[in-house]
Amino acid sequence: xxxxxxxxxxxxxxxxxxxxxxxxxxxxxxxxxxxxxxxxxxxxxxxxxxxxxxxxxxxxxxxxxxxxxxxxxxxxxxxxxxxxxxxxxxxxxxxxxxxxxxxxxxxxxxxxxxxxxxxxxxxxxxxxxxxxxxxxxxxxxxxxxxxxxxxxxxxxxxxxxxxxxxxxxxxxxxxxxxxxxxxxxxxxxxxxxxxxxxxxxxxxxxxxxxxxxxxxxxxxxxxxxxxxxxxxxxxxxxxxxxxxxxxxxxxxxxxxxxxxxxxxxxxxxxxxxxxxxxxxxxxxxxxxxxxxxxxxxxxxxxxxxxxxxxxxxxxxxxxxxxxxxxxxxxxxxxxxxxxxxxxxxxxxxxxxxxxxxxxxxxxxxxxxxxxxxxxxxxxxxxxxxxxx
Length: 388
Ligand SMILES: Cc1cc2nc3c(=O)[nH]c(=O)nc-3n(C[C@H](O)[C@H](O)[C@H](O)COP(=O)(O)OP(=O)(O)OC[C@H]3O[C@@H](n4cnc5c(N)ncnc54)[C@H](O)[C@@H]3O)c2cc1C
What we know:
The chain is an alpha+beta fold.
């Protein structure tokens, strides 16, 4: 069993770090934080296009479509490093839509979309959740009626983050109204500038934006259907098995900042790193971070061996997102009352970043499947327990 990265992996990671140190600007880092680390805002697009030009946006893809044919371990390392360094690392096109098109799309669709995704030219917004369909995506009810050479869409989506800064909607809609719930859904790509789409803001407690989106008689050409009609539920589930992973890099950076703060902050003539309670809790956190990385790279190893992770992906997503919350909780405790101050306050410690990620960390255990849903998958697929 080898727990080491290859020399090539370490080299890529170092190159990427140096590249971001050189190209990153305070405005871009701020923009990224203000958008919850997702891709689509202008300054993020500038740097990600340069990162993509080196093949690092879609490193696992074939060279034909703009990748490096890198191992999953390398892909995981790159994504984690991007999170650590503070550039956007939440991609719908590169991490969810692209791989699904690669697996299930027609040749024409691959040629049309994959090159534009791997260069970072376009971004998609994830269009799954609706007011009555979140954990249970088989309840999706947005209507897509077959009108000959196009579908006519009507209905509402909720919490569709990045619709206001993305170019296209990666949309799940109902195309068969009689079939069993999970057999009548199709995946399609919709231009977010299409007439009839209204995008309204929902501001999260962390200050960044997600959206409610309404469709009123929106026409979607038939060639924008992904794979086969009515197979969308299967595509969504299969994509989650591959892509449900959570790189902890962003929060590991917060942890490193906390360690430095503990060493440098003097209270009663001593650094707070000498306070037994703080040391114990930081040491405990270090163990949990290490354990998260073992789960994270184990997932990459499963994929590199040609297997499909199911409950293992849920284990990592669940554990990593709960660790993220424990890191920021500890950070809030360490800062005391300063923890309430935002970046722009002159009294803010650590540029207000702890409170920002404390609030962002809440949603990590909700999207891409809540912790309850992950535990159900681990119980049924991992432990082979009966469904309730
Ligand atoms: C800030 C934010 C951004 C988001 N961004 C996107 C996005 O870009 N695109 C997108 O499509 N979606 C997005 N989502 C939606 C997210 O994926 C859903 O909120 C999530 O899947 C939960 O669905 P729900 O909100 O409908 O809650 P529900 O499914 O109604 O769940 C409510 C509670 O019941 C529990 N529960 C539900 N079913 C079960 C069960 N079978 N067993 C045990 N417990 C259960 C859940 O764990 C939860 O605690 C976002 C959500 C938020 C909050």
